[in-house]
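Notebook B, p. 112. Complex prediction, attempt 2.
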Amino acid sequence: MVRFGDKTVLSGGYITSETGKVTGLLGRNGAGKSCMFRALMGGLKVENVMVSIDEKPVNRQRIGLSVKYLPQGRMLPENMKLSRAFELYGVNYWSFVNRFPKYSRFHDAALWELSGGEARVAELGLVLLSEAPFYILDEPFSQIDPINIEAVQALIRERSRDHGIIVTDHNYDAISKVADNLFVIADGYTSPVHSRDDLVRHGYLR
Amino acid sequence: MTLRDRIYLTWCYGKTQLVIGLVYNLVCASWLSMGISYSFFVDAFIIKTIIYAITLFLIYQFRNRDAIFFYINLGLSRRKMELSVLLLDFLSLAVLLTAVLIIYG
């Protein structure tokens, strides 16, 4: 349960991810999508949170080794060089540059030297190319230009072959192109989406 | 992850606290070099604890709430990071005071 003052944001959140699949999570602004992810990852204190992989509970003090999370806002320290961040995450910077050639000139740049969209792609590459069985991406397409959205979608599809990925975004078209199954979060609860009617019923679409 | 990486990450995470802590540690060390008494140590650590708590409170008001996930993704929880900063800060005070005691002993 996630509560801010008297307002209950999330009371019954539940989501699953399978290796080889991309799960999309949809929901209106303030529905509790990011709160759920923050709670799962230990960035928000909440009651009764449980994360398990293959039915075994995950040690939440070390959850980052099993699940890598791209938050909605910036997570990299502003003064850290991109090459240093990639080194700490065990990712070869040049394998990222192969996918996003523009970044060859940012090898020694700190995050503050990049624009919002450039920083977003760098953080996304850092998270998705680091090793973990599962990834959670919170609004990965925000601030990114259309050409890079296609490259990001391709990277998500590629990594989903042998990893489980959960994605949430307000760009419904972008998410529907990569997601194998969808959930919607509304009124504090998550529900699976089987058809467009489910999204209308939960107030996400008209 | 190497110890060097861990210290670097602790510095990145708690830079403000560590800089404020270091300034206080240097002030304590200079006071100590002028005159030593048992109560000085107790007072120095009590004041340090109070300053640490106030700094932490102020930092939490303005901190980027998503920055913690950079460390969580590396398997380091918020609690571990806070403890590392606390340990490094108090360790630097202990080392500085010991050094002053040895030099001016």
